[in-house]
Amino acid sequence: MIKVGFIGLGVMGSPMAGHILENGYPLYINTRTREKAEALIEKGAIWCRNAKEVAENADCVITIVGFPKDVEKVYLSEDGLAEGAKDGSIFIDMSTTEPSLEIAINKELKKKGAHLVDAPVSGGDVGARNGTLSIMAGGRREDFDKILPILSTMGKNIVYTGEIGSGQHTKMANQIVIAGTMIGVSEALVYGKKAGLDLDTMVSTIAKGAAGCWTLDNLAPRVIKGDFDPGFMIDHFIKDMKIAIYESRAMGLNLPGLRLVEDLYEKLSEEGYGRNGTQALVKAIEELAKDKG
Amino acid sequence: MIKVGFIGLGVMGSPMAGHILENGYPLYINTRTREKAEALIEKGAIWCRNAKEVAENADCVITIVGFPKDVEKVYLSEDGLAEGAKDGSIFIDMSTTEPSLEIAINKELKKKGAHLVDAPVSGGDVGARNGTLSIMAGGRREDFDKILPILSTMGKNIVYTGEIGSGQHTKMANQIVIAGTMIGVSEALVYGKKAGLDLDTMVSTIAKGAAGCWTLDNLAPRVIKGDFDPGFMIDHFIKDMKIAIYESRAMGLNLPGLRLVEDLYEKLSEEGYGRNGTQALVKAIEELAKDKG
User: CA-CA to B182 of 20 to 30 Å: which in A9, A91, A277, B86?
Assistant: First the structure.
């Protein structure tokens, strides 16, 4: 059976690695904090001293870490994955990171005869636990076909998006749309509240027509109840939007809606709301009203 | 049977008045351009010389005209509806207009013992023709209950939203959400195109998750095909957004997303795209890239 490596055992990575192990794959792991690996080691995962050692042992290595700088470090630093990469190995980066970084990493891996698939996910920790993540995967089609059984242990809606980087680009497009739905729904809720509308009636009325969106169906009811617990955390959304802004600028684009929303979220984060859910954007709109008044 | 008056026989009003007539209500009509009334007169509608005469003859008068100034004129000018209003009459304004104007008109009508219901619609000319409009109605509950059979000849999803003005406020909330989904989807499409993504794959992939929205399902495919025919015309959307901005400012709110989107659409209108569909917002985002490059 194909030997799998896994690096990054956070709130997403731990259950994802667990699914791979449960499906009978030999699993080689490494992560910054060894304690996070103990539960998997007890179930049979093999600890490696560093990323390089993971790459030396496994035929397919999955990474899911935090920021672009972490992705870069895991792959390109001393004792990193690229150093240990074998001819024919496939690497899968499931972090959300810069498409241009994936292209650069792929170039390094190719020197060893290995290839990268960039495969960011959506669906959050619930999707990771239940094995129901959506996965957007870019890279060589033949590599995608080879790793599909492994991806299938972690996700349900798995799409091949095209060449290397296209998975991340698709994820960015996803986050750009969400930035728009978040500002629209947040401003409508603040408007409706100020206008004295019954917000439940307002939401149920407009959700059926051209204003209908996932955010209205799923986050507006939470806002109305005053529930700002994170489904998706503001600080994580800011990270993604910064990547999208960086990439869009690199391509010569100016996306004023995305920039506006990112700016509002950054202010919220500075005020201490970074660990709230993204629905807390209403607080930024409410504060703008106060500034004016 | 209750006598109905109808003023405003445009692309929306004509089929709406037709449905009322077909359901057996005596129908008194007046409109700026008499030729637009001929078809209804042939089917039995009774022509009145002015709005006042419509109000004198009917027990329930429906109006659907263009801009807030047209609404004001029909109700409050010389020979207008308020002059002819009878004790106990119910007026229904189905135009999209300023909530505060509806409140002012209602105040005038009350001097005669009459009342207003503000009942803007969504669903466009297709909904008007098929009698499947969504109707958001504010005013006295007893008046809403009385006119529900009449509204039911024109619409399917008819919601009582609360006191006078709340129908318009609900419509504004609807347009504010749409402003957000439009900018999000437009920026994502421009980003995806520039990134070289297959846009059909991109849209179908992200439409299933948290980015899902009516705009992505219905307008993104049109943009991809280069189809900018109006489902909803840019100039009409601008009119609605201007009302929402006016009302939000009057309430002390600052809605930066709405203002940004309205501004982009105004530039498009100035460049001659005013009769395009709202999906042409992508053209504004593409032009921003050119400015930069």
Answer: A277
A262, β-bridge pairs: none
Q: What angle do CA B180, B182, B188 make, to 5 degrees?
A: 105
Q: What is the pLDDT of residue B290?
A: 77
* pLDDT: which is higher, A242 or B33: A242
| Residues in a beta bridge with B54 | none
The whole-angstrom distance between residue B31's C-alpha and the CA centroid of its chain comes to: 18
Q: What is the pTM of this model?
A: 0.95
pLDDT digits (tens, 9 = 90+) for A114-157: 999 999 999 888 899 999 999 999 999 999 999 999 999 999 99
State the smallest CA–CA distance between residue B157 and chain A in angstroms. Answer: 8
Between B290 and A176, the more confident residue is A176
Is the pLDDT at B292 greater than 70? The verdict is no
Residue B269 has what DSSP assignment?
Answer: I
Considering chain A, what percentage of its residues have pLDDT values greater than 90?
A: 95
Q: Which tens digits make up the pLDDT trace of B111-125? A: 999 999 999 999 888
Neighboring chain A residues of B176 at a CB cutoff of 8 Å? 184, 187-188, 191
Angle at B98 between CA B271 and CA B217, to 5 degrees: 55
* Cβ contact B213–A218 (<8 Å): no
Those residues with Cβ within 8 angstroms of residue B95's Cβ, 6 or more apart along the chain or in another chain: B8, B63, B64, B65, B66, B70, B71, B120
Give the three-class secondary structure for B86.
coil
Distance from CA of residue B98 to its chain's centroid? 11
Which chain A positions have a beta carbon within 8 Å of B175's beta carbon?
211
Name residues of chain A where pLDDT drops below 50.
293
- Residue B135: closest C-alpha in chain A: A205
Q: How far apart are CA B36 and CA B33, in angstroms?
A: 6
What's the pLDDT band for B293 if we cut at 50, 70, 90?
Answer: very low
Strand-pair category, A115-118 with A46-47? unpaired
Q: What is the pLDDT of residue A290?
A: 77
d(CA A154, CA A156): 7
The token pair that represents A274 in the structure block: 């970074």
Q: Which residues of A120-134 are buried (b: 16+ CB within 10 A; e: fewer)?
A: bbbbbbebbbebebb
Pairing of the two strands B133-138 and B121-122:
antiparallel
The three-point CA angle A274-A279-A281 to 5° equals: 70
ipTM score for this prediction: 0.95
Both structure tokens of B181: 């989904």
Give me the residues of A, 206-245, that contact B with CB < 8 A: 206, 208-216, 218, 232, 244
Asked if B211 and A136 touch (Cβ cutoff 8 Å), the reply is no
* Contact criterion met (CB below 8 Å) for B171 and B254: no
In whole angstroms, what is the distance from residue B222 CA to residue B201 CA? 14
pLDDT at A289 (0 to 100): 87
pLDDT digits (tens, 9 = 90+) for B194-220: 999 999 999 999 998 999 999 999 999
Residues facing B160 on adjacent strands:
B137
Handedness of CA A265, A270, A273, A276 (dihedral sign): positive
* B3: annotated active-site residue: no
Domains of chain B plus CATH, in order, are 4-163 (3.40.50.720), 169-292 (1.10.1040.10)
